[in-house]
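Q: Could you fold this chain for me?
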Amino acid sequence: MRKHKGLKSAALALAAFALIAGACGSDDEAATDEATEETEAVTEDTAAPLPGAGTLACMVTDTGGVDDKGFNQISYAGMQKAEAELGVTIDLLESSSDADYAPNLQSFADKGCNITVTVGFLLGDATKAAAEANTGLNYAIVDYAYDPPVANARGLVFATDQPSFMAGYLSAAMSKTGIVGTFGGVNIPPVTIFMEGFRKGVEYYNAQKGASVKLLGWDGTDGTFAGNFESLDDGKNIAKSQADEGADIIFPVAGPVGLGSAQFALESAGKVKIIGVDVDMSVSNPDAAEVYIASVLKNIDAAVFAAVKDVVEGNGVTDNYVGTLANGGVGVAYTAVPDDIKAEVEAIAAGIADGSIKL
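A: Sure. Below is the predicted structure, expressed as structure tokens.
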């Protein structure tokens, strides 16, 4: 937090400086120069506050918690950026279960949060109810868009099928067994959109190369799900099951559950590699960095920051945000992908962005 000196303190500092300068026999020119520098420092230190001063921005996580190394954590990074760059005050409530959603939202409504950001599709109903009950407050929700729209609730959604398509292609290209896998935390659209994009990327590789790489865990309509976003043991067990069927690259779309898959991969002595999700997992999960070959990025922090900034600037939250490859809202972080495959994947990204490759 920026600290501000009072005018009285500044005046005393200047007076003390003048006495010291006279006692030391400094000439008038030196004293004037130093006094000018001090005055400029005081003026800078007492500058106008940042534009978000007085704005309260709040966030409610889903049950994965703010330290999930995934979409809750990167959402909160957007809040922290707003605090640092806009000067807003931020507050956070973590949900231990879905029963916490409504009480957490009510708590923030009672505090008068100028904007409340909720994280995850599962908060959709609770966020809508809160927004409709508090029309003078603003809301934004990650991974949900209302149809019909809610006037004071912005959806922050992402075309994650696009980078997942790229990840499916590169996984098929890098697999040594000809078998790759994916699985989800819960069977909901923000999860299955990743899995479907991944499936189409594998199919595109097969079509382009005349190959027959097999995908486990998702057939386009149904697949493998942990049933939660919390259990590392579930992630470890599912990864082991897919590895037992021959998969050597696995794409968990399951929040912290995926950390269990990374642990299994770490214990596999290099036999299994992982595609990270939401953030660059080789960075956010450094203890298992070596198992990640790439990560599908959902740049939620930028979307959250933009929503808070719009409220600070008086623009409200009147429209939904859709992150794409074209606008930088989604992407792929490469950790251990050969240059030739990376070049092919980047060409695919360009084709998706300009519309010449249809998903």
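A (continued): The chain has three domains: 7-45, 56-158+303-311, 161-278+329-354.
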